[in-house]
Amino acid sequence: MSSYWVNFAASGDLDGSGLPHWPAFSDQAPNVMHFDEKSSARDGAPNLAQLHALDAYYAWRREQGTKSP
């Protein structure tokens, strides 16, 4: 995990030499990184419904912040 952080801080990209590729998360490809004996990105985000609820909440908050009083 720390190698990913160092790569991101240095280059803005998580991936680096010798590390499994960490793909971006999207609704079309809901891959999440698992760190274990064979670390890799795998299908199926846990709590996907909760992630959508948070996205909707923050979209609503941003909308509220842009409205004039």
Low-pLDDT stretches are none
Largest beta sheet, briefly?
2 strands, antiparallel
Q: What's the overall average pLDDT, rounded?
A: 88
- Write down the overall geometry: flat
Share of helix, binned: 40-55%
What's the N-to-C terminus distance?
A: 44 Å
Record field, number of beta strands: 2
Rg = 16 Å
Q: Estimate what percentage of residues fall within beta strands.
A: 5-15%
Q: Any idea how many domains? A: 1
Provide the succession of SSEs: HEEH
Structural class from helices and strands? alpha+beta
Query: Please, how many helices?
Result: 2
Strand order, sheet with most strands: 1-2
Please characterize this protein's 3D structure.
The protein has a two-stranded antiparallel ribbon. The longest helix is centred in the last third of the chain and has 19 residues, at 48-66. It has one domain (2-66). With 69 residues, the chain is α+β, with helices and mostly antiparallel strands. The protein is built from two helices and two strands; from the N terminus they run αββα. The mean pLDDT is 88.
